[in-house]
Amino acid sequence: MSFEDKLQNILDNHADLEKKVADPAALSQQEFARFSKEYSDRLSVVQQINEFFKAKSEQADLQEMLEDPEMKEVAEEELAEIQRILPDLEKSIQVALLPKDEADEKNAILEVRAGTGGDEAALFAANLFGMYQRYAEKNKWKFEILSLSETGIGGYKEASANISGKGVFARLKFESGVHRVQRVPETETSGRVHTSAATVAVLPEAEEVDIQIDEKDLRIDIFRASGPGGQSVNTTDSAVRITHIPTGIVVSQQDEKSQHKNKAKGMKILRARIYDAERAKVDAARAADRKGQVGSGDRSERIRTYNFPQGRVSDHRINLTLYKIDEIVNGGELDELVDALTAEDEAAKLSSPE
Questions:
Q1: Staple 203 to which of 76, 109, 119, 279, CB 3.0 to 4.6 Å?
Q2: Strands 142-150 and 239-244: what pairing?
Q3: pTM score > 0.70 for this model?
Q4: CA atoms within 13 A of residue 106's CA, in its CB half-sphere
Q5: For residues 318 and 51, what is the distance between their CA atoms, to the nearest angstrom?
Q6: Closest by alpha carbon to 144, among 28, 2, 15, 256?
Q7: DSSP at 206
Q8: Is the pLDDT confidence value at 228 over 60?
């Protein structure tokens, strides 16, 4: 089947859906909801396909006009413009028709952990967490801190947040991996540049319909919360440790004074981690068939370096270096990186379809 035949089939199917949703009395409530969603989901690509076919039709007309000596000059100009835009229209449609990641529209759980580098790594983890918080604010997303484990000098051993809004996971999913920083620590008297690292994990937030957890598969331990240096956060046994026995995944939550709230937050993180692990199995199978994807998806992969003395941020997966470290880290200006990673991923999928 040719590309144009495939596009015509999409138009025909969309026209059938339009007829169905125009007569809701003939459908069950579930059918009407499903057909309406399919119809609206495809509306954008149908508009692009119609634009493509219109351009192809104009191209054919202009090629005929070339035979007319009086119209040839005008036809050549217009034909050049049509031939310039057609490849862009075709690529745009191909991208729109790529299989969608079902998690793209989900909210996300962000987890940042200090890696090698002691206090400097913890300070860098706090920088990264703040960077994502500012990026969320720019996108008008809700940024709810779930937990913070502070070092006492402004650093974070680990921190997590729930980020909610439109298309959050799609914009943040390529941030998972090891982020490395090169700079002179404030505590360094000799001015030597140190290298340290932090790990970022971005998990799609899982709803109960995505992951159903049986209570009998959980072991829940209650203990007294403690802060940095053993200071008591509160005097009640409100901290919660949840162990999912089948997978061995453990989540601890102690930021709230209420045991109930700590358990609810812990379950949100647990559900996201289990869902992420299930997705990772599927992704690994797909990745075996697809070369050139953006990164391996491995959380231990070094994906980006932030070099403060040189003012640069380098993403190693796509060989992109930007000399705007302050705007990115302190201003949350991540769009240029995110757009480039998304474009590279789309290009990889187009060149190696599943």
A1: 109
A2: unpaired
A3: no
A4: 22
A5: 32
A6: 256
A7: P
A8: no
